[in-house]
Structure formats: structure tokens, C-alpha cells
Task: structure prediction
Amino acid sequence: MTIFISSIITGLEDFRNAALRACQTLKYQVLRAEDFGANAGTPQQVCLAGVRAADVVVLILGARYGEPQSSGLSPTHEEFREAREGSRVLAFVQEGVTREPRQEEFVREVQSWGGGLYTASFTKPDELRDAVIEALHREEIARGTGPVDEAEMLKRAQRLVPDGRGAIREPSLCVVIAGGPKQQILRPAELEKQVLHKKLMKEALFGDTAVLNPSQGSETAVVGDQLSITQDDNSITLDQMGAIRIVQALRNDESPGSFGMVLIEEDIQVSVKTALVFGGWVWDSIDDKHRLTHAVPVVSLLNAGYKGWKTRDEQRRDPNRATLSMHSVETITVKLSPVSRPRPALNIQALELAEDFTTLLRREFKK
Result:
């Protein structure tokens, strides 16, 4: 691979050299502004050409933004905008520094971008070197596996959405996350290991990303290529390719008199966010080499026909009144556009993704 190192130069020399050493350790060709020498174009034109020639852009973000160009953006910001059109971006954010306001905005833009991005943090040059080596190694593994096929991932995710009827008795939220490139992450023998079952059960019941009800009994079973942990109203399903399905019952304990006829928007958003972060935790547990680089999440409302939709504030102000949906659709499923997100988004962008999914569900529900 050809790597372009992008950052301001002054003040980050040691970090740029650390990134260079990381790339050289892995025997990759490196493009840097320092190495371009005399050229007919302006320095920034030459750098943007280097970005276009690279397979991967290593973006190093420190405290300073840099001098704005005629575009109003710093050279590094222009390079990022150019890179995201056709290159893979590996972004590394320096921690423990006070960032300039425009640099803080730039960091937020990078971390909220929806495509082709891996993000890690660092404080010292050696930490950056190790992080770049790890990220490039993961990139090499992913490229060796094959391309990310968003359409195939979306089909796998949609196939895992259960029918809203039958076993689903309560209004429920279903979050499915399919990963890519498509490959086997767990061997059949690994899927049956009790250590995996216990680890998943512990986190799902008592961890920071708990998605099951600790007051309910849980049953574990392996059927075909899927491991399932089920309760009366909640469940987790994990298959050999790392696809995850989380189903959670939607109950409104703050609505006396509503008789379970109202869905609370904030509760749905929290459930989506928790499920996404839990999915990221599962992948970190079963795929620590990050063979799965991208995620396609889809979110569904199950068995929610003839219910109302309110915010928590609306419910508290008038708990005994709601406009009920008059359609009987058992399942409402929404997806993002584009459907794929880089794997770190499951944690870094969990809140933003949950907000977007909740908005899309509300729109479909109220049609």
C-alpha cells in the first residue's frame, strides 16, 4: 500500500516521524510533504495529488488547526476532504492537549464522518507509532479478505430481522448489525464454547452495555450457525460471521393509565444506543484482530401496530391521551444512507446513530 501522512508539520515533527517509522516497519511506500521537493505546482496542489495517489491516508490531529488557505480550510482539512472521496482514512487524535476551536470542529467532523474511517488516540510518539502499525495491519488483513459489499451485508442484516408476530408478544425493538468483509469470525467449535456463552451472558445482564433483564431467566442454545440467549421478552443472537441481533421489549413504566399503548421516543433512542455499543463490545470480544472493518446496522420496531408515539415530556404532561397509529404493520425496519459505517462508529457515533435511527422510525411509524 501507498500511505500519505497528513498533518500540520510545525510542532508535530516527532509524531510525523513516528508515523513514518510505523509505515517503514511494514514496508509500505510513504508520501509526505517533506519529501516532495521542487515541483511546478503549489505545495498544496502537490500534497492533494499525493492524497489522490495514496491507498491510505494517515491523518494526525494535534492541538493546532493550521493556516487557512484560500478555501478557508487548513491544508490538513483540505487533504481530509480530498481523501474521503476515494481513500481509506486512518485518523489519530492527540489527547491531553488543548485544541484550538477550529481544530476541535475539525476533529468532530472527522469523527462524525460516515465512511472509511478508523480512529485512535495517542499522547506520545511511541504510542502513535504502535497505533499506526496496528491500524495498518488491520487494514492489510481486511484487504486480503476481500472488498466490503454493502448490498450483501444489508441483505444479511435484513434476513435476521424476526417476524413481528408469533414469539414476539410485546412491542419490541430489534437492532441487527452485520459485518464485512464477509467471512467466518467464529468456528463452529468456538460458537459452542461455554466460556463465550458465560462472557456474553455476564455483559448482557450486568455490564455497562446490558441489553437483557437481570430479573428474568435466560436460556442459551446453539442451533445451526447461531448462538442464542433468550428470555421471555428479550434475546441476543450471534452467528459465525459475527452478525448480531438484539431484541428488547419496549415497556413504559412511567405511563400510568396508558395500558402499554404508548412508545416513548427517548426510551427507544436509549435502547438503540445501548444495542449498538453492545454490538461493538461483542465484536471486540470475538474479533480482536478487527477482521470486520465495517458494520451495516438496521433497526426494527416489532409488534408495534395500533400504538401511540410520544416524547417523555408529552407523556408526563398528559399520560392518559395519545394519538394511536391506525396501521397494523407488524414490523417497521429502517436503515441508514449510506447503509455501511466504519466499525468504530458503533462506539464513537453510537449516540448520533441512535438519534438518526429513532428519527427514521418515528417518520415511518407516523405515516
Observations:
- The radius of gyration is 23 Å.
- The chain has a mean pLDDT of 87.
- The longest helix spans residues 265-286.
- The CA atoms of residues 67 and 231 lie 57 Å apart.
